[in-house]
Write a structure and sequence with these properties.
The complex is a heterotrimer of chains A (156), B (765) and C (285). Chain A is built from six helices and five strands, in the order E-E-H-E-E-E-H-H-H-H-H. Chain A is of the alpha+beta class and 156 residues long. With 765 residues, chain B is of the alpha+beta class. Among the domains of chain B are: 187 residues, Aldehyde oxidase/xanthine dehydrogenase, a/b hammerhead (Aldehyde Oxidoreductase, domain 3, Alpha-Beta Complex), CATH 3.90.1170.50; 182 residues, Aldehyde oxidase/xanthine dehydrogenase, molybdopterin binding domain (Aldehyde Oxidoreductase, domain 4, 2-Layer Sandwich); 136 residues, Aldehyde Oxidoreductase, domain 4 (2-Layer Sandwich). Chain B is 26% helix and 26% strand. In chain B, helix 5 links the parallel strand 10 and strand 11. Chain C starts with 6 loop residues before the first strand and ends with a helix. Chain C has twelve helices and 14 strands. In chain C, helix 10 runs antiparallel to helix 11 and helix 11 packs antiparallel against helix 12. By secondary structure, chain C is α+β, with helices and mostly antiparallel strands. The chains are: A alpha+beta (156), B alpha+beta (765), C alpha+beta (285). Chains in contact: A-B, A-C, B-C. Chains A and B meet through helix 2, helix 3, helix 4 and helix 5 of A and helix 1 and helix 16 of B.
């Protein structure tokens, strides 16, 4: 069985014919060649594949591509531009919140959505939210500092 | 104008500009025209004799192009060779790229399927029927119910022997001796990116190109060329971005042959990406060792001698780096301490578990657990303060350099280079507020027992033999640097560019760095054993020095004076008469130089860690209140990235000690085959850790003066946490001798200690 | 870990969904997918057809009424966290659900999905049993109401028919002066509980415990109430002795599972520890 799926990916309408079993993560990466989102476990634990669907950060390995029909999907590419680093990205860089970079897009999307909703969170709350993303390199300290330091940019 | 050196500055990483935007190129990001996908059929039986493997149904699946078993490979079946410290005894213990007569671990590759999509390749796997006669599966080092190798009457693959000083009469005449048995459990690196390889065959040129090479591309090229019967020049390994290594990934695995082999047969590019369940089964496992450790002391606590009988469980086969762990185990038991007499044997024992390799601080994490744990037990017996016990036994500066114990077979002479061990210990004690907190030792406060501990360690780095770097003055006046070191996420690019920038006196914007791929330099040795800053950095310095000489010569010619009348400063050549020439003016001469830096002397970073933790006696939960790591890295190139390595290494050490465990069942089934079972540390687990790096003593062994750092954070964690738990639960009589210290295990120790106490009380009554 | 092949449908109504389930043997409901999709990734199940509820309206509401709080089958964990009315209407629900999984999962995982999946260590089934909730299931035989206490028959096993969908969970009204507490124990934040205990009770005019509910998860193959402990608590004032007696009773009656990593004895001990900690915590409210 193949089905047509159409959704908005980083501001652009995209459409493809896919098997229902294709995950949203694999669809973004291979059907639409946006490889910024990474696949770390395929069973919903590591968070590397996090993308934003209709404003909510979700694990793209735990969503079928066909479930994204009609939705707005934002990946790390949609939160980036070529000219400058966004405040969140610059904060990650300044606080050395990445080493190998594999988990980083998942942290960027999660942090962006979280900071948008809760720009005044405590450090404890930041750690709680980030506990849904695994990093093996940094030990999390730099990431937590980076997210806290990015808060001013998200406050109105 | 005086240029500010970049070495020593917390330069923001150049790599981040790509990685933060999702523009990294990891192996699964690679697309090639006509790409096919591979899947590996893996044994679900831990130990057995292969009667047949029926792939006929798999071959019929729509979209399948090829299915191979060992029978289809060139005979004899290729095996994965040993990279480090090869020894002829290891030859029969090497892994065949596909299982042929026997399977020896759950996860062992039985067949490879090439299909149009990864999903259809996996569909085909389900139609492969392996008829395997099951044999007894063994998982511990003392289990002899089955033998893994027909030509061996034991499961012991190899024994290493270590010796230092003269042991005659030491134990017989000592004031005090003690012997204890310890165990460290199996766990491993678990990189965020699983392994993968893309291979493409150019039939016209007779050349194979593989992407996804990481850590040791040149060594892997040599191996692949040999296995594919190609000249090295016909094999290219391209390094892109890698999602971590930690030692476990990047060595040569069966798939690193199978995928290019299939690409050549089909004349189509082939991609294989390991999934997470496979990763937990198939990437190198680590740790898992048993030790009987004995010590002989004077009654003032000074150590006279130590003896160790260690068995390390290396799993089903000898991997390219398997030798490192037993060698380190034997050599690093002594750490930074003065031990006049020492002898040890370390046996690499085979079992029906996934084969082991090196993982951050290989053998050292285990050795430090055995040693530091025994030290606290001994200090308690002798009624000596545990810090004082360490002070009395730490090597003094005037005792360095100090030779390591000798090792046989494949001997290597190495010595602790430089260090102010006690000074760093004092810094650590101050940072954790050791004296102020001693009143909490073993106290029950609000239902939690408090414990503090301290540990001292050394970390080896900068393995030789060589590293290469090439510098090229480009036509636009910029300099391209090519280096054989590999980037595995550690910030290599930025660090090496800082070194290059200072040597060439140029800003970062005028430099470009290319790493790892075999296309860049004639020879390379990669990133492992915390070597790249030292080896790659020194190679760059050598190459840059020579390039500057060539620049001076060329500029002198242009300015029509002699080379000794000109000087190089900040990218400009200035003559004594005041005229000058910029690099751009010389750039058309295509100046370049490839240098090779050789090193036989390792560097030894060292330090002390301290911890203050609590134990909830009712649940067994261990909570870290404060964790301090202090490390002397000799010379810090980039404090920002070094600090990141420190914190990351500590969290891996704590994860390994308190959360992670590769658990095997009775029949050799690996039970921790998902991230819901193998628990990795999360942002909420260890929030209270600090890593402090100091520059007290440079390495005297090479011009850069830095010491390889990156594994130190992990090495002492096991022994440290166990000692702190023992201190916390001293009143309950709990003395951990095994890891991990998961809540259920700590709880069980408390129950057992309670039972032992009440039994003893009852027998007295 | 690519999933096996299956067909997919996203009907617009409960009736249509039920019809698809009834007519396709081996079909399964897809709600949040946070439990089902990992199972498919590990190829532990081979559904013929996934019936996605994403386009079925009317299942995502949280209704707070005079007699009960009703959660639609497709209510997500994040909705429960975000609905400020629930802090007063059912503080225990808010507390329990705050322990579920992680940030991203909470944006997709649903009440109905968790109830139907029936993981013995999951918070929602435990909550439903502890609070005497009623599930509404709709199948080709029509709608029926099932008491949560009757719903679970084993680990990952429920009385749900293959063509039934959980459309609603009804939670009995929560008296404002009720004493309550919930604690679970897991190795890391967000993991499934190794054990979890819910306690709530009211006071009679004499200040004695009445209508005690003691719910336990993770300690058996199904979420359960410990009736012997409840009987021991009812009619008594909360004292240190009562807590100790309740703990001792729980240790006696609970019969935990043993698995390769965690022993039954440890789970049992945790149940006792959590029970006494939760009971002591209720003294403060």
């Amino acid at each position: 069985m193949v089905m047509q799926v159409t959704f908005n990916l980083n501001g652009k309408q995209v459409s493809a014919s896919v098997e229902p079993r294709l995950t949203l993560g694999d669809c973004i990466r291979h059907t639409f060649a946006q490889t910024g989102t990474h696949i770390g476990c395929e069973h919903g634990v590591c968070g590397a594949c996090t993308v934003i669907v209709d404003g909510d950060p979700v694990r793209s390995c735990l969503m079928l591509a066909v479930q994204a029909e009609g939705s707005e999907v934002t990946t790390v590419e949609g939160l980036s531009n070529d000219e400058y680093l966004t405040p969140l990205q610059q904060s990650f860089r300044t606080h050395h919140a990445l080493q190998c970079g594999f988990c980083t897009p998942g942290f960027i999307t999660t942090a962006h959505a979280f900071l948008t909703k809760e720009p005044d969170a405590t450090e404890e709350r930041v750690r709680e939210v980030l506990s849904g993303n695994v990093c093996r390199c940094t030990g999390y300290l730099g990431i937590v500092e980076a997210v806290l330091a990015a808060q001013p940019a998200y406050r109105k | 104008m005086v240029r500010t050196p970049l070495i020593g500055q917390p330069i923001e990483r150049i790599e981040d500009l790509r990685l933060l935007r999702g523009k990294g190129c990891y192996v699964d990001d690679i697309q090639r025209p006509g790409l096919l996908h591979a899947a590996i059929s893996r044994s679900s039986i831990a130990h057995g004799i292969i009667k047949s493997i029926d792939v006929s149904a798999a071959k019929e699946v729509d979209g399948v192009h090829l299915v191979l078993t060992a029978k289809d490979l060139p005979q004899p079946t290729p095996t994965v060779p040993i990279r480090l410290f090869p020894n002829e005894k290891m030859i029969p213990l090497c892994q065949p790229v596909l299982a042929e007569k026997k399977v020896r671990y759950v996860g062992e590759p039985l067949a490879i399927v090439i299909a149009e999509t990864p999903a259809s390749a996996e569909d085909a796997l389900e139609l492969i029927y392996a008829d395997i006669e099951q044999l007894e599966a063994i998982s511990t080092t003392d289990d002899n119910r089955a033998l893994l190798f027909d030509n061996l009457d034991t499961n012991c693959g190899l024994v290493y022997y270590f010796k230092k000083g003269d042991m005659t009469g030491i134990f017989e005449s000592a004031d005090y001796t003690r012997s204890e048995k310890f165990h460290v459990h199996r766990h491993t690196g678990v990189t965020m990116e699983t392994r993968g390889v893309v291979s493409e065959w150019d039939a016209e040129k007779g050349k194979i190109t593989s992407w996804g090479a990481v850590k040791v591309p040149f060594a892997n090229r040599r191996i692949l060329a040999s296995l594919m019967n190609l000249r090295e020049e016909s094999v290219e390994m391209i390094e892109g971005d890698a999602g971590g290594s930690f030692g476990v990934r990047g060595e040569f695995f069966p798939e690193d042959f199978l995928v290019p082999h299939c690409a050549r047969i089909l004349n189509r590019p082939v991609k294989w990406i390991e999934d997470r369940r496979e990763h937990l089964l198939a990437v190198s496992h680590a740790r898992d060792a048993d030790c009987v450790l004995e010590i002989a002391c004077r009654k003032d606590g000074r150590i006279l001698g130590m003896r160790a009988d260690i068995k390390t469980n290396v799993g089903a086969y000898f991997r390219p780096t398997t030798a490192i762990t037993p060698r380190n185990l034997g050599q690093f038991v002594l750490g930074p301490y003065r031990v006049p007499g020492y002898e040890a044997s370390v046996s690499a024992m085979h079992s029906n578990k996934s084969p082991s390799g090196t993982y951050r601080g290989p053998g050292r994490y285990e050795a430090d657990f055995f040693r530091e744990r025994l030290f606290d037990l001994v200090a308690k017996d002798l009624n000596i303060d545990r810090v004082e016990f360490r002070r009395r036994n730490l090597l003094r500066e005037d005792e360095l350099p100090c030779a390591f114990p000798s090792v046989e077979p494949n001997p290597v002479l190495t010595e602790l280079d430089s260090g102010a061990y006690e000074e760093v210990l004092d810094i650590c004690l101050k940072e954790v507020k050791w004296d102020e907190k001693q009143h909490l030792q073993g106290q029950l406060v609000d239902g939690l027992y408090h414990g503090l501990a301290i540990a001292c360690f050394v970390e080896g780095g900068a393995a030789g033999p060589r590293e290469n770097a090439k510098v090229v003055l480009e036509s636009d006046g910029t300099v391209s640097i090519y280096v054989g070191s590999s980037a595995v996420g550690q910030g290599l690019q930025t660090i090496l560019m800082q070194i290059a920038a200072d040597e060439l006196e140029l800003p970062l914007e005028k430099l470009r760095l290319f790493h790892g791929s075999t296309t860049y330099v004639k020879e390379g040795f990669g990133s492992f054993h915390s070597r790249s800053t030292v080896m790659g950095g020194n190679a760059i310095m050598l190459a840059a020095t020579e390039l500057k000489r060539q620049i001076l010569e060329a500029a002198a010619e242009i300015m029509q004076c002699s080379a000794n009348e000109v000087t190089y400063q900040d990218g400009i050549v200035i003559a004594e008469n005041g005229s000058s020439v910029a690099l751009e003016a010389i750039a058309d001469r295509k100046l370049s130089y490839e240098a090779s830096f050789a090193n036989t002397k390792h560097t030894y970073t060292y330090g002390s860690h301290a911890v203050h933790l609590t134990v909830d006696p009712e649940t067994g939960r261990v909570t870290i209140l404060d964790y301090i790591a202090v490390e002397d890295a000799g010379r810090i190139i980039n404090p920002l990235t070094l600090h990141g390595q420190g914190i990351g290494a500590i969290v891996q050490g704590l994860g390994g000690t308190l959360l992670e465990n590769l658990v095997y069942g009775e029949d050799g089934q690996m039970l921790s085959a998902s991230l819901a079972d193998y628990l990795l540390p999360l942002a909420t687990d260890f929030p209270n850790i600090r890593s402090i790096s100091v520059e007290l003593r440079r390495s005297p062994n090479h011009p850069l003066g830095a010491k390889g750092a990156g594994e130190g954070g992990t090495i002492p964690a096991g022994g440290l946490i166990a000692n702190a738990v023992a201190a916390a639960l001293e009143s309950l009589g709990v003395q951990p001798l095994q890891l991990p210290l998961t809540p259920d295990r700590v709880w069980l120790m408390i129950q057992d200690a309670e039972l032992a106490r009440s039994t003893a009380a009852a027998s007295v009554a | 870990m690519k999933m096996p092949k299956f067909e997919y449908a996203s009907p617009n109504s409960v009736e249509e969904a039920v019809r698809l389930l009834a007519e396709n043997e081996g079909s399964k409901v897809l709600s949040g997918g946070q439990s089902l999709l990992p199972i498919l990734a590990f190829r532990l199940n081979y559904p013929s057809l996934l019936v996605d509820l994403k386009n079925v309206d009317g299942l995502s509401g949280i209704h707070i009424g005079p007699e009960d709080v009703r959660l639609g089958g497709r209510v997500r964990w994040c909705q429960i966290g975000d609905d400020k009315r629930l802090e007063a209407a059912h503080p225990l629900l808010v507390s329990v659900i705050s322990n579920v999984a992680h940030y991203q999962i909470r944006n997709r995982g649903t009440v109905g999905g968790s109830l139907a999946h029936g993981d013995p260590a999951a918070e929602m089934p435990g909550f439903a049993v502890a609070c005497d909730c009623t599930l509404t299931a709709v199948g080709s035989g029509g709608a029926r109401k099932i008491a949560a206490g009757d719903f679970y028959t084993g680990a990952l096993e429920t009385v749900l028919e293959p063509d039934e969908i959980i459309t609603e969970l009804s939670i009995p009204k929560w008296p404002v002066d009720r004493r309550w507490g919930f604690q679970e124990f897991s190795q890391r934040k967000g993991d499934f509980a190794i054990a979890g205990v819910t306690v709530f009770y009211d006071h009679n005019p004499k200040g004695e415990i009445q209508d005690a509910h003691v719910g336990v998860i993770g300690a058996a193959s199904v979420p359960m109430r410990l009736q012997e402990v409840e009987n021991l608590l009812n009619g008594n004032r909360l004292t240190g002795e009562l807590v100790a007696a309740a703990k001792e009773c729980a240790l006696r009656v609970v019969d935990p599972m043993e698995d390769s990593q965690i022993s039954a004895n440890y789970r049992r001990s945790l149940v006792g520890t959590l029970l006494s900690r939760v009971l002591n915590g209720t003294a403060g409210h």
